[in-house]
Amino acid sequence: MDEMTRAVSNQDHFEISTLVSAFFRALDERRFDDGWAGAFFTDDLRTTTPVGAAEGAAAVRQAEEAVGRFAATLHSSSDVVVRAAPGGRTATVSWNAHMTHVHLDSTLRARGTGSNPLFTVGGIYEGTVRRTDSGWRVSHMSVRAVWTTGEPPVLPEETATRVAGLNENQPSG
Fold this sequence. Notes:
Largest sheet: 6 strands, mixed
Strand order of the largest sheet: 2-1-6-5-4-3
Number of strands: 6
Shape: elongated
Radius of gyration: 17 Å
Number of helices: 4
């Protein structure tokens, strides 16, 4: 087993798992006050999501905008796997996620009577965390949808075009 495939200490695993859960809770409660992201991310954060890649403050805004496209969200994480060199200052982390999104009334009206109010995603998050003076923080994070039910939100035209291009480059199952 190489250095980066060893499990971290129980304390580090607990702290990183708590970071993941607290991040999802902040998204669902929309706690986006000034500086909220500093509790979860490094300043050089890089993200890759179904709506594109972003870095730094743009990645934080992208997360805020993504949940803002819905009336409510509920993110659940499980099976957090953390690997790092013993005593290391960085670790790789992955977890499964079940994400339920409730569409805005405006989306439902635009789609017409009988529209499904829910868009649900089962996905996998992967990333890197870094130990900082303030604790573990995410420096890179990507999410990949494994399955979806319902329709995604109505996206701004520019975003929809970019997402369509991303999806065309995905391997087919």
